[in-house]
Amino acid sequence: MGIETASQQVQQWRGAFPLLNQLVNGQPLVYLDNAATTQKPQVVIDRLQRYYAHDNANIHRGVHALSQRATEDYEAAREVVARFLGGVESRQCVFVRGATEAVNLVAQCYLRPKLGEGDVILLTGMEHHANIVPWQLVAEERGARIEVLPVTPEGELDLEALPRMLRDLPVKLMAFVHTSNSLGTINPSAEIIALCREAGVPVLLDAAQAAPHQRLDVPALDPDFLVFSGHKTYGPTGIGVLYAKWQHLSQMPPYQGGGDMILKVSFEQTRFKEPPERFEAGTPHIAGAIGLATALEYFMELDQEALLAHEAAMRQRAEAGLGEIEGLRIIGQAPRKASVVSFVVDDVHPHDIGTFLDQDGIAIRAGHHCTQPLMKHLGLPGTARASFAFYNTMEEVDALVRGVQRIVKFFR
Ligand SMILES: Cc1ncc(COP(=O)(O)O)c(C=O)c1O
């Protein structure tokens, strides 16, 4: 695609996101905090509005037309999720609040009953707190421990250590991130999962940062569990997905009790429904699930190759531009990276970078990005992080570089 057509394409994508068209601090908004949350296309906003204006009813229980319509839309949303995940079965997809709740669900319902004294949960040095703390909670309770696959100075996983760890430690589950939110590293997940499979170790894949950038081929990756969040994938907040192999899901006890997840209740005994309903106690986020399906459908229709090429080009341009600034260091140099650029500047705190850029209307994130163990390992208090989505432009990348140049000049 030529440059002219490429930027026309981006303008067309961008036009679908109304929030982007505004001034912040008197400057056109440059939204580069997409790893924290993504913006929503108009079709998603319209779908939520239509749901509440026309279809709102509680699901699964009503005989009236609205309830049936809402139920159909909610279950159809599950089918869309199953398609987005590469053609898994919809009954393997549980609606939850987000990636965090999905990890907690697996920790409590799958792992906790299997975990004993001295057992190991294997994580990596680049995990988000959402993929650390839920495991710690069950490990502490059961006398198990966490072991960590190390991260290299370039920000890659030390894969050489993995076969030995899987062989020598009593690993009951490995949980790791597909794409690092702090470094942008895209891990060789298929390879890691295959090694775990050989060792008979079940795997949870945290796809919170991978889902917004590509369709996920779950049958090819073959994890036991996979989690992602709707709000990072152009959908609403408060909705996310747990995918699980049926052999696990069907054996797991419920996470929470309440309405909608039961077959029969008496004061003596309760019988639960099959998954996924078993794990969706109470009235779920119906609008959220429907909105998420609209977001995924929208995303799946985009030219995936063009989108990835554009995101890669923005990252490379940002790295090249920022890399020329004296005293600036890009954190995370893995050869395979998503459109995330973390950086630190000598003598300038990341929070100052974030605050000064905000005055130019540029939104980035500064801090530990919920990866405190990784920051400690790298010897950093935090980083400044720009994260790009397909609706960002090369001009916005240049605005970021100019903004950081100005800040560095100011502090020197
Ligand atoms: C890699 C990763 N995993 C998990 C999460 C948790 O997602 P949520 O807060 O939507 O549950 C995040 C959020 O930043 C993330 O980046």
Can you put this structure into words, describing what you see?
The protein is of the alpha/beta class and 412 residues long. It has 14 helices and 17 strands. It folds into two domains: 3-31 and 303-411, Aspartate Aminotransferase, domain 1, CATH 3.90.1150.10; 46-300, 3-Layer(aba) Sandwich (Aspartate Aminotransferase, domain 2), CATH 3.40.640. Helix 4 runs parallel beside helix 5 and helix 11 (304-323) runs parallel beside helix 14. Bound molecules: pyridoxal-5'-phosphate (PLP). Pyridoxal-5'-phosphate is lined by residues 98-100, 128, 130-131, 177, 181, 206, 208-209, 229, 370.
Biggest sheet: strands, sense, closure?
7 strands, mixed
Low-confidence stretches: none
Average pLDDT level: 96
| Beta-strand content bin | 15-25%
- Count of helix runs: 14
CATH architecture label of the largest domain:
3-Layer(aba) Sandwich
Percent helix range = 40-55%
Number of domains: 2
Return the CATH class of the largest domain: Alpha Beta
Q: What is the general shape?
A: globular
According to CATH, the homologous superfamily of the largest domain is Type I PLP-dependent aspartate aminotransferase-like (Major domain)
Computed structural class: alpha/beta
Q: Provide the gyration radius in Å.
A: 22 Å
Distance between the termini: 41 Å
Bound molecules: pyridoxal-5'-phosphate
CATH topology of the largest domain, which one?
Aspartate Aminotransferase, domain 2
User: What is the number of E strands?
Assistant: 17
Strand order of the largest sheet: 4-10-9-8-7-5-6
